[in-house]
From TrEMBL:
Keywords: Cell membrane, Disulfide bond, G-protein coupled receptor, Membrane, Olfaction, Receptor, Sensory transduction, Transducer, Transmembrane, Transmembrane helix. Gene3D superfamilies: Rhodopsin 7-helix transmembrane proteins (1.20.1070.10). Belongs to the G-protein coupled receptor 1 family. It comes from the Eukaryota. It holds the Pfam family 7tm_4. This is Olfactory receptor. SMART domains: 7TM_GPCR_Srsx (SM01381). It comes from Rattus norvegicus (Rat).
Amino acid sequence: MIRNNQTVISQFLLLGLPTSPEQQHLFYALFLAMYLTTIMGNFIIIIFILLDSHLHTPMYMFLGNLSFSDLCFSSVTIPMMLQNMKSQDTSISYPGCLTQMYFYMVFANLENFLLMVMAYDRYVAICFPLRYTSIMSPILCVSLVFMSWVICMLSSLLHTLLVVKLSFCEDNIIPHFFCDISALLMLACSDIHINELLIFYLGGTSIVIPFFLIVVSYTQIVWSILSVSSTRAIHKVFSTCGSHLSVVSLFYGTIIGLYLSPSANSSTVKKTAMTMMYTLVTSMLNPFIYSLRNRDMKEALIRILYKKKISL
Ligand SMILES: *[C@@H]1O[C@H](CO)[C@@H](O)[C@H](O)[C@H]1NC(C)=O
């Protein structure tokens, strides 16, 4: 290994959100409220799914996992960002920065894979309703969730290990509210060619493949509805898939907005705002989209409250 006379960076400074000091309090209150809503909403969903045996179906197991992933995804960045908004010291240690980067990638990716698994589940439920329980066996469900976790952890580990190999020079200011991999790469003073290639190909495929499979699943679903062509069937399909479809559009809408917006006019401010949207807003809205539009969830609430009453 070549050692040159670079200063070894032991910490980074996070610049945080590009807000003016007067706006700081407003944004602090807004993001705190959004974060607390995210935690509460997703926590309630997980509790419902664990407590109510009627919700022990593959679809709700996957939803529980999505909520768990949402909880973790927002908790990786938002609490630290809120703390940094209040304090003068916004430094983060080198290991802390890499850890945050790793978990951010794990949960961002996991969200992708879980949405794909959920689309497959809906596809089987609608296109093969009679064989649904035999196809979506407990073993298959557990393996799908397990595989998603393993793939996300391994690919994020690979990205992180390649960042560990980089050397950083004088500049340690990250113009972002968390340790984002692309922001870190810009600070590196060694060759980042391999890292960029890996992000492009591995990161690209882990977004494009799930997205593609989701589109395929929904195309199949739409085909099967059109072949039945009874208004009642169509209504039934939209009531089961509508909420899933809204989550998918929200999630990929923000990703596509983030990465496909023309880079010439996408300022740091705009990028940060979009990332914020992607980390906080989607995680916050997921539980509402599922529970407000969903009769099973409302019935579960009634059953849980009713049980409480009886036991009291
Ligand atoms: C996640 O999915 C697995 C496998 O389907 C399931 O056993 C587990 O209960 C789920 N977790 C939550 C929090 O719903």
